[in-house]
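User: Predict the structure for this protein chain, please.
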Amino acid sequence: MSPIIIAGGLLVVAVLFVVGTYNSLIMLKTRIQEALSGIDVQLKRRADLIPNLVETVKGYAKHEKEVFENVTKARAAMMGAGSMKEKVEADTVLSGALKSLFAVAEAYPQLQANTNFQDLQRQLGDTEDKVAYSRQFYNSNVLDFNTKIQMFPTNLLAGTFNFKMFEFFQATEEEKKKIEVKF
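Assistant: Here is the predicted structure, written as structure tokens:
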């Protein structure tokens, strides 16, 4: 075989490798963006449920103004969060505000028996499960992407095309605290 044919064959293989690797990195990056969008959808769903929940509780607990204000502020912060860090921080504040709201609701047996309140609680619980799943899906995609851009020889192309590692969605210190159940 002539050296020109060998060089041409090697060039074709190299180009196919670069194109294939680049496309696989783009696919993984797109999956991460889609997973992050899934988290946003679930957080928005939760934020959309909160005004109804607050209004239902307000009807029974008119003197708990501070709790309602905190939930409303936390919801607004969640809706305005832009970066991953802001979303995690806003999510933590909102989760704490919702805990306070449910603590207030426990003091009102008629509210606990209200079917609208029970339905909203169920929907919120379902949404929390979906948020957890969305975070897990995101982290799984981040793991695949981060692993791939660190492995040889992909790391050479990842550096050349300026692919950067993504941050994992991690539990906050508040979420890591041990929960005590007292009877």
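The domain at 3-164 is CATH 1.20.1440.20 (de novo design (two linked rop proteins)).
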